[in-house]
Amino acid sequence: MKTKTKNQKSKLNGVFFVTIVILLFLSTVAKAQEQDSMKTLFRPGTTVSELWTPEIKINSIQGNIGTLVGIYGGVLINQSFLAGISGGVNLGHPSVNYGYLGGIGQYIFKPDNIVHFSSQLVIGYGTTKDYENPKSNLFDNFWNISGAVFFFMEPGINLELNLSERLTLVTGISYRYVAGLNELDENVSITHLTSGDMRGINFNIGLKIGKKPFEKHL
Do 125 and 150 touch, CB atoms closer than 8 A? Predict the structure, then answer.
């Protein structure tokens, strides 16, 4: 009974975190649209550039700490709104091997400031497959993840530091909400992995690499 109550509290905390971050993301976008100094997507002078961010995520699954290597990026509009793709593959978790692919929307608040914030939302799907043998090194079974399918939504907030005009250090926290994982799937017969096991907080660090923007007249 205590375990069930604890799981319910954890789930409620996760839903609360997801709701708060989504509301923050939507409110910052709306506020930016109201500012005269911020150009919208449909006005002349809109700038468009390309941005890619390799990152490392740290999380806990089934009580074990693991790392995931990933990348996200796409089109950056007015140096403030990013729309693109996001993906990652397990690197250091000792028992759960998984990967994901999805879409990302990110809003960067006051990007010209040396230190600033951003909020984001990633939605996509992933797959997981048990190790056939114990993991012996970081790259063991690196791409062998095609198995049980799950769907996820991961809102997050970041603290960013401009290193140069085209390089930005970013660290952040996100909450991954997972659904649809079949724990009876033969691909997870060893770990008996569930959607609840995959849910939780992620800490990330990455380096944004951007190209010089160009002006697009709409």
Answer: yes
Let me know: does 191 contact 130? Beta carbons within 8 Å: yes
Query: What is residue 167's predicted lDDT score, i.e. its pLDDT?
Result: 92
pLDDT of residue 95: 86
DSSP string, 14-40: HHHHHHHHHHHHHHHHHHHHH-TTS--
Q: What are phi and psi of 170, to 5 degrees?
A: -130, 130
Q: 31 in helix, strand or coil?
A: helix
75 strand-pairing partners: 50, 83
Q: Which domains does the chain have, with CATH numbers?
A: 2-36+48-212 (2.40.160.20)
pLDDT at 168 over 90: yes
The DSSP bridge partners found for residue 156 are 120, 174
> How many alpha carbons lie under 13 Å from residue 143 in its C-beta half-sphere?
0
CA–CA separation, 64 and 209 (whole Å): 31
Contact 172, 155 (CB under 8 A): no
| Nearest alpha-carbon partner for 56 in 82, 29, 92, 21 | 92
With contact defined as beta carbons under 8 Å apart, do 124 and 152 qualify? yes
Could you read off the pLDDT of 100-122 as tens digits, one per residue? 999 999 999 999 899 999 999 99
Check: CB of residue 160 under 8 Å from CB of residue 144: no
The residue count for the chain: 218
Tell me, what's the pLDDT at 160? 96
CA angle 64, 171, 95 (to 5 degrees): 15
